[in-house]
């Protein structure tokens, strides 16, 4: 079997190995490196003034910096509570830092790492935070690394709103009570996942491969009574750029099959929560059959003849069977009939 071709999106669960060469590109995505042999580590933190690191055997607390980065990536625990704040503002940083330490101590028996992240080191997290996240600091995010980066966000606005906590003066995020209740609400199952989505496209273009946004995934893919092929991509991915025209050609070839729909979705701006979708590399292509949306079929994007392979794949894996020749004949007849009406 030929090895899969494409740019791997490394999972944090695997050690975040930044070894793809282009550092600025890699830092926008999680790294892939299955490090199942990692041993359990003591939590390591740095005091609020940036002093020497200290070992804690029970409180799972870190400050993210070059000396602790690798240890955090390799830790056996893959649920993280990240608090982003500006270390350049000493009093501001110290309050956030101490509030996170408090939450780590309260919830020290839970399998969750608490990581204070100075905004100067925010770049490795941008792939799931969106554009310019430092402008929202301070804010907290709980991330389930091994669950498709499912995340729950606490910002000043949500904290003031009372769904988590009434700030009671000072910064509503960086208070002991806010972070403690935020984390408790997470473990009690009371938080709603934070999902990013672009605004719907006003112009979807004339091709059969249509753009899709995260907010419409449920309605247009899962609830659709059709077979739906979805191409997950990243705009900076060279292989995606080479693959898309061929996948678009495949979509155009089947544009007259009414039971088939083709979409593309930018994973750097849209989140999808589905048990059958774990985007660990791009391109990532799945067919969601009409009668079994829970079990998407794997489309092997590395095949050299995307159109030939794809045509055979669709005929075998689509739940709603189709005859491409008859679909094209029906479309041609309909088109000719429309032209005749116009002439009359």
From TrEMBL:
GO terms for cellular component: endoplasmic reticulum lumen. The keyword Glycoprotein does not apply. Its main location: endoplasmic reticulum. It is found in: Endoplasmic reticulum lumen. The keyword Disulfide bond does not apply. Belongs to the protein disulfide isomerase family. This is protein disulfide-isomerase.
């Amino acid at each position: 079997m030929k090895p899969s071709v494409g740019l791997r999106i490394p999972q944090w669960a695997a050690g975040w190995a930044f070894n793809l060469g282009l550092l600025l590109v890699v830092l926008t995505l999680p790294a892939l490196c299955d490090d199942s042999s990692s041993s359990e580590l003591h939590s390591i933190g740095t005091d609020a003034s940036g002093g020497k690191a200290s070992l804690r055997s029970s409180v799972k607390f870190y400050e993210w910096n070059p000396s602790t980065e690798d240890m955090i990536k390799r830790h056996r625990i893959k649920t993280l509570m990240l608090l982003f704040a500006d270390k350049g503002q000493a009093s501001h940083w110290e309050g956030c830092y101490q509030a996170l330490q408090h939450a780590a101590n309260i919830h020290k028996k839970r399998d969750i790492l608490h990581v204070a992240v100075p905004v100067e080191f925010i770049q490795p997290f941008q792939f799931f935070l969106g554009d310019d996240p430092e402008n929202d600091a301070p804010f907290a995010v709980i991330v389930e690394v091994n669950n498709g980066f499912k995340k729950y966000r606490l910002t000043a606005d949500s904290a003031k709103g009372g769904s988590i906590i009434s700030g009671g003066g000072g910064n509503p995020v960086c208070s002991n009570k806010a972070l403690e209740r935020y984390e408790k609400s997470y473990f009690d199952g009371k938080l709603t996942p934070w999902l990013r989505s672009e605004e719907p496209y006003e112009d979807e273009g004339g091709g059969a491969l249509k753009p899709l946004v995260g907010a419409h995934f449920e309605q247009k893919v899962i609830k659709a009574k059709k077979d739906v092929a979805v191409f997950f991509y990243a705009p900076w991915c060279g292989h995606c750029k080479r693959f898309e025209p061929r996948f678009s050609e495949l979509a155009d070839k089947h544009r007259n099959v009414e039971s088939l729909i083709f979409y593309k979705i930018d994973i750097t701006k849209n989140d999808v929560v589905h048990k059958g979708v774990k985007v660990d590399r791009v391109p990532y292509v799945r067919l969601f059959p009409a009668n079994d949306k829970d079990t998407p079929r794997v489309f092997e994007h590395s095949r050299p003849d995307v159109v030939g392979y794809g045509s055979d794949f669709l005929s075998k894996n689509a739940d709603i069977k189709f005859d491409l020749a008859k679909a094209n004949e029906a479309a041609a007849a309909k088109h000719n009939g429309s032209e005749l009406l116009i002439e009359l």
